[in-house]
Design a protein that fits this description.
alpha/beta; Rossmann fold; 11 helices; binds nicotinamide-adenine-dinucleotide; NAD(P)-bd_dom_sf; membrane; transmembrane
Amino acid sequence: MYNINELMERDYRPAVNPQKNSSYKLTLLVVALKVSVVIICDIFHWFINLFKSSEPENISKKLALVTGGGNGLGRSLCFRLAQEGCDVAVVDIDYKGAFQTASEIQEKYKIICKPYHCDVSDKNAIYKLKNDVEREMRGVDILVNNAGLLYTANFLTSNVEDIERAVKVNTLSQILMTRIFISGMIERKYGRIMSICSITSIVESPTMVTYSATKKGVDGFIKALKEDILVSGNDEFIKLFLVYPDFMHTREEISNVLDAVKHFLPRLSPDRVADDAVNGLIAGKEYIYATDIMPIYYAAKFLTKNAKKHISTSILDSSIFFSGNIKNKTL
Ligand SMILES: NC(=O)c1ccc[n+]([C@@H]2O[C@H](COP(=O)([O-])OP(=O)(O)OC[C@H]3O[C@@H](n4cnc5c(N)ncnc54)[C@H](O)[C@@H]3O)[C@@H](O)[C@H]2O)c1
């Protein structure tokens, strides 16, 4: 382990090429044999588990924290978690929205629900949030990293400040939130971290270059973290979930942009996606695809270059459904 600041202050020192000694082949052979035994045991356990019915997890009385909980999908997730009996910390940069969500939930479900103002792309604000939530409520059991900016733009004309903000809110915030909240979960030996990704991290689409990259970052982050947690032995009590929602009708401006392609892309309600996400969490499903057309998205990956071009240009040029040319606009 090294400190990045100290490393960058030092003069650059090229590494010496390590010499392979003769025992490395033997070491590789021993490791390969051990791994083969582990794989056989894993297959055996998997087979036994096929015949066991796994009970859904009871998350009642757990404390869930949802970022971006003031509006859209985050708001629906807060309601759905409260329905399961969770207490909820509703976190948003839009305090009015968070307050509204928390008040309605408190009224409807007799659980504890509090609003918190926080810009989740700011590390100091996250440290303050953690202190406030732990003092006023308790340690977070379920962290839902949902806050995000669905950013559509022609990449070549897109605004550099918008790109920076999208990366900070969509990707950096999820890494910082997880880093700052996971230590308490490990100490308490319980934690569920749900990451809201996007279908665009699976199917790359034009006009969503930066957005798609930020969501692929989230996808890669959680998958790599799974490996870290496995190696450190924390995988028994820390579980990670990735949710891939299809397009939803949430914020008005985004919905208007997506109207351009409404005849091609279905749009789901945020309640439906929240339902899929929370059902997946209690069923222990690590990858949750909140869409009705996953096979079509997978099939799209195998299209030839010209077929992809044809489909994309037909959608984007579609003046029947959109009074303007989406290709030349920063949306
Ligand atoms: N809407 C879609 O079609 C769609 C599709 C797939 C995935 N998603 C993802 O779902 C998540 C929710 O999207 P949505 O459509 O509900 O968005 P939304 O714009 O309706 O709501 C996002 C919420 O996050 C809050 N927020 C934004 N920046 C924040 C910050 N820095 N700190 C704290 N809160 C902040 C906003 O105030 C808002 O309340 C996002 O991660 C988005 O990328 C959306």
